[in-house]
Each structure stands twice: as structure tokens, then as C-alpha cells.
Amino acid sequence: MLTVEVAGADAVAAQLAALPASVRQALRRRAAALSAELVARVKQKLSGEVLAARSGRLRDSVHQEAGEGGSGIFTRIAVGVPYAAIHEFGGTIPAHTIAARKGEALHWVAGGKDFFAPRVAHPGATIPERSYLRAALAEMEDEIVSGLRAAVAEGIAAVRD
Fold first, then answer.
1. Which residues are within 8 A (CB) of 140 and not within 5 positions of it... i.e. 6 or more apart?
2. Local confidence band at 114 (pLDDT 50, 70, 90 cut-offs)
3. What proportion of the chain, given as a percentage, has pLDDT over 90?
4. How many independent structural domains does the chain possess?
5. Does some domain include residue 18?
6. Which range of residues forms the domain containing residue 19?
């Protein structure tokens, strides 16, 4: 999962707590909408733009969470498969043995032929970095910043009216 730390988060949280309800409401709406757009962009990247989808499990596990908590308004993009990070950041998989767990043998097709074995020796692999989360976030950075600024302006305007 991608983690972002904000310097001065406590100060930002205190400022958010002091905002009028209309600004908080506008920020919640805009953050949720921008988060949904970011999820769509990430899924686009996982549909062949950055990674070719085999089963679609990685793409389908991407989801958003948005709300308001003790530290203010938040939105989070989460990926729910264990191999998500190695595709985002790259890495090395050491050599290891893969054994059948739910049956007597593993099955795979290579060169149009079926193969069966109770276990296989995986030689290990180096997976290159193929950013889909950070790349989508970087592409939307200006849109996110301007969208949140517009939400604040909208909330302030609602208070003035």
C-alpha cells in the first residue's frame, strides 16, 4: 500500500477542525469524487497501460475509502492483493519451491501442452518497477490540488451567501 506522510499534519488537522461546516462538506464531496477518478485512472493503468491484466485480480482489488475522522477529512486508495507492492516498486523474488496445496498436482499449459507436477522449482525473478499508483497520482496532482482549492472556495462562498 502506498503511504504518504504530510509534514505538519497536526496543524493541518487543527485548521480543518476550525473550518465552517460548508467547507468541510464541500471538501468531503470533492475528495470522494477525486478519489473515485484516481481509482479509475489506476484501474486504467492496470488494464494494459502499465501492466497487462491476466486475471484482473489486482485491478479489481483497487478501491477507495473516504470519510472524516479524528485527524480530519481523508481519502485512501487501497489495493487488496499481496503482490501489489512488487509491481508498484519492483523487487526480487528468491528461488523457491511451489507445491500443490489443494490437489495432488499443479497444472499449467505451455506451448499448447498440459503439464502436471506435484511441485516445481521456481528459479526466482527480478520484477521491474511498473508504477500504477504513484504514476496515476502524479498525473492527477494538478487536478487534485485545483479541485480541493475549488472546494474550499465553494464552501466559503456558501457561508457568505
1. 34, 37, 38, 41
2. very high
3. 66
4. 1
5. yes
6. 9-90+128-160
- Residue appearing with cell numbers 471538501: 27
**Is 31 part of a structural domain of the chain?**
yes
Is-contact 148 34, C-beta < 8 A?
A: yes
Q: Is residue 85 within 8 Å of 100, Cβ to Cβ? A: no
| Mean pLDDT value across the chain | 89
In a domain, 113, yes or no: no
Compute the average pLDDT of residues 118-144: 96
* Structure confidence by residue, pLDDT tens digits, 25-38: 899 999 999 999 99
Is 106 within a domain?
A: no
